[in-house]
């Protein structure tokens, strides 16, 4: 998304890491997240928990709806109605909670429909990606995900099965 794009553009323009950190914080709360180049859990704006091996051996089915969600609008709605603290959530389980699901679902109700559809297939994990319109489901069984893909591919703008690296 836009935050990852911003991170890589800033680093191409400047090699001053201290200055870059200040820029990341100014333009987007999650931009600095990308400096780790790793899977991680964001505990708050300053604390990241790296989880490099959590989903080794998994494949993902990615589903993107044709109605985009504005990241800015999603965060504004989150700040008004949905702000929660996630320090107590257990990220060692296969449940990952995306704080932006509530506002994203209000901006595009089909996100919830996609989640419910993928959950009906008993995958190991189903969640929304980023600030919306993309949903993913995880499984170690690539053939099972491809079967799901063939059942739902005509309903959505984009459906793919990929291997997690």
List keywords for this structure.
38% helix; globular; alpha+beta
Instruction: Going across the biggest sheet, name each strand in turn.
Output: 4-5-3-6
Shape, principal axes of CA atoms: globular
Order of helices and strands: HHEEEHHHEEHE
Q: How many beta strands in the DSSP annotation?
A: 6
- Rounded to an integer in angstroms, the radius of gyration calculated over CA atoms is 17 Å
Distance between the termini: 18 Å
Look at the helices and sheets and give the structural class.
alpha+beta
Mean pLDDT: 76
**Could you describe the largest sheet, including whether it forms a barrel?**
4 strands, antiparallel
**DSSP helix fraction:** 25-40%
Beta-strand level of the residues, as a percent range? 15-25%
Query: Helical segment tally?
Result: 6
- The stretches of 5 or more residues where confidence is low (pLDDT under 50) are 85-95
Characterise the protein shown here.
- The protein is of the alpha+beta class and 165 residues long.
- 38% of the residues lie in helices and 18% in strands.
- The strands form two sheets. Strands 4-5-3-6 form a four-stranded antiparallel β-sheet, covered by helices on one side. Strands 1-2 form a two-stranded antiparallel sheet.
- Helix 1 runs antiparallel to helix 2 (17-27) and helix 3 crosses helix 4 (101-107).
Offer a quick outline of the entry.
This protein is of the alpha+beta class and 165 residues long. Helix content is 38%, strand content 18%.
Write the layout of secondary structure elements.
Blueprint: H1 2-13, H2 17-27, E1 40-42, E2 48-50, E3 59-64, H3 71-82, H4 101-107, H5 110-119, E4 125-129, E5 134-139, H6 142-152, E6 158-163
Antiparallel strand pairs: 1-2, 3-5, 3-6, 4-5
Helix pairs in contact: 1-2, 3-4
């Amino acid at each position: 998304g836009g935050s990852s794009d911003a991170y890589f553009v800033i680093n191409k323009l400047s090699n001053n890491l201290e200055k870059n950190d200040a820029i990341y914080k100014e333009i987007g709360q999650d931009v600095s997240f990308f400096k780790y180049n790793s899977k991680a859990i964001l505990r708050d704006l300053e604390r990241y928990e790296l989880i490099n091996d959590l989903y080794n051996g998994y494949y993902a089915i990615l589903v993107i709806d044709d109605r985009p969600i504005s990241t800015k609008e999603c965060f504004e709605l989150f700040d008004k109605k949905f702000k929660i603290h996630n320090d107590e959530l257990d990220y060692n389980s296969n449940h990952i909670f995306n704080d932006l699901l509530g506002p994203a679902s209000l901006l595009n109700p089909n996100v919830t429909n996609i989640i419910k559809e993928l959950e009906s297939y008993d995958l190991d994990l189903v969640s929304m990606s980023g600030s919306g319109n993309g949903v993913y489901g995880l499984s170690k069984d690539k053939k099972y995900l491809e079967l799901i893909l063939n059942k739902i591919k005509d309903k959505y703008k984009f459906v793919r099965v990929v291997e997690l690296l």
